[in-house]
């Protein structure tokens, strides 16, 4: 399977680019949002890719991040959502917008993508709501690694929620590091959904406090925190 393509852009089309990887050119289909971020002909680009195989053709789809590729895979797992429809959703909303729409059950936002009707949009929200936190965690972790930021643990101080100083998380060094990274990724994902810093940090801290030491998984923390943040009644 072709997982990534890097090289010089030889041609730009309405929905694809031709990337020369050193004598071999790959036609890679991209969302409108991704195409707008790529350089002009002659520039270099690197895209994570997904190869879609059908009886009569092979098509390569490209994404700037692993999280976006995972969202595309997840969207196409829904019956009635093809590869190009999934690209349309990502091009319209972006990864953060897709995360927000699915997590909050906003089928109207999904329906805004060209080629996606109301029934398909509702199905996307219904089928992917429980799967979304894992991809959100991947995106948050990728953003943290790209920025070079060290993970910061979120700790509950009683009346307030604050960032833990270096070395503050309890437990062994490995557990502390993993727990801090998971909490940081969960917090980042919630902030991208539009929650305030204080309420998001408090929810992550409560979720982390309720989890066992070996269950400090970012996706699980996101799920638990979202339940805490959900409107009551």
UniProtKB/TrEMBL annotation:
One of its GO terms (molecular function) is ATP binding. Residues 1-62 form the DNA helicase Holliday junction RuvA type domain. Residues 178-233 are annotated as: Domain III. Keywords: Cytoplasm, DNA damage, DNA recombination, DNA repair, DNA-binding. It holds the Pfam family RuvA_N. Residues 1-64 are annotated as: Domain I. It is found in: Cytoplasm. GO terms for biological process: DNA recombination; DNA repair. GO terms for cellular component: cytoplasm; Holliday junction helicase complex; Holliday junction resolvase complex. Residues 182-230 form the Holliday junction DNA helicase RuvA C-terminal domain. The keyword Lipid metabolism does not apply. Gene3D superfamilies: 5' to 3' exonuclease, C-terminal subdomain (1.10.150.20), DNA helicase RuvA subunit, C-terminal domain (1.10.8.10), Nucleic acid-binding proteins (2.40.50.140). The keyword Cytoplasm applies. Belongs to the RuvA family. Homotetramer. Forms an RuvA(8)-RuvB(12)-Holliday junction (HJ) complex. HJ DNA is sandwiched between 2 RuvA tetramers; dsDNA enters through RuvA and exits via RuvB. An RuvB hexamer assembles on each DNA strand where it exits the tetramer. Each RuvB hexamer is contacted by two RuvA subunits (via domain III) on 2 adjacent RuvB subunits; this complex drives branch migration. In the full resolvosome a probable DNA-RuvA(4)-RuvB(12)-RuvC(2) complex forms which resolves the HJ. Has three domains with a flexible linker between the domains II and III and assumes an 'L' shape. Domain III is highly mobile and contacts RuvB. The RuvA-RuvB-RuvC complex processes Holliday junction (HJ) DNA during genetic recombination and DNA repair, while the RuvA-RuvB complex plays an important role in the rescue of blocked DNA replication forks via replication fork reversal (RFR). RuvA specifically binds to HJ cruciform DNA, conferring on it an open structure. The RuvB hexamer acts as an ATP-dependent pump, pulling dsDNA into and through the RuvAB complex. HJ branch migration allows RuvC to scan DNA until it finds its consensus sequence, where it cleaves and resolves the cruciform DNA. This is Holliday junction branch migration complex subunit RuvA. It comes from Oceanomicrobium pacificus. The lineage of its organism: Bacteria, Pseudomonadati, Pseudomonadota, Alphaproteobacteria, Rhodobacterales. The gene is ruvA.
């Amino acid at each position: 399977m072709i997982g990534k393509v890097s090289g010089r852009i030889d041609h730009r089309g309405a929905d694809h680019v031709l990337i020369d990887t050193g004598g071999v050119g790959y036609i890679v289909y991209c969302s409108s949002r991704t195409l707008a971020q790529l350089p002009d002909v002659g520039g270099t680009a690197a895209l994570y890719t997904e190869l879609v195989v059908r009886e009569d053709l092979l098509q390569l789809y490209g994404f700037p991040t692993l999280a976006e590729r995972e969202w595309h895979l997840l969207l196409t797992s829904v019956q009635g959502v093809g590869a190009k429809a999934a690209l349309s959703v990502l091009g319209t909303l972006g990864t953060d917008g897709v995360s927000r729409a699915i997590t909050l059950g906003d089928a109207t936002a999904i329906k805004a993508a060209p080629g996606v009707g109301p029934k398909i949009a509702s199905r996307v929200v219904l089928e992917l709501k429980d799967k979304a936190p894992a991809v959100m965690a991947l995106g948050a972790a990728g953003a943290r690694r790209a920025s070079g930021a060290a993970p910061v643990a979120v700790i509950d101080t009683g009346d307030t929620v604050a960032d833990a100083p270096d070395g503050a998380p309890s437990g062994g060094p490995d557990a502390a590091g993993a727990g801090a990274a998971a909490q940081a990724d969960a917090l980042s994902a919630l902030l991208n959904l539009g929650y305030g810093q204080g309420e998001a940090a408090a929810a992550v801290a409560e979720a982390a406090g309720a989890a066992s030491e070996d269950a400090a998984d970012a996706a699980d923390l996101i799920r638990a925190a979202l339940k805490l943040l959900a409107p009551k009644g």
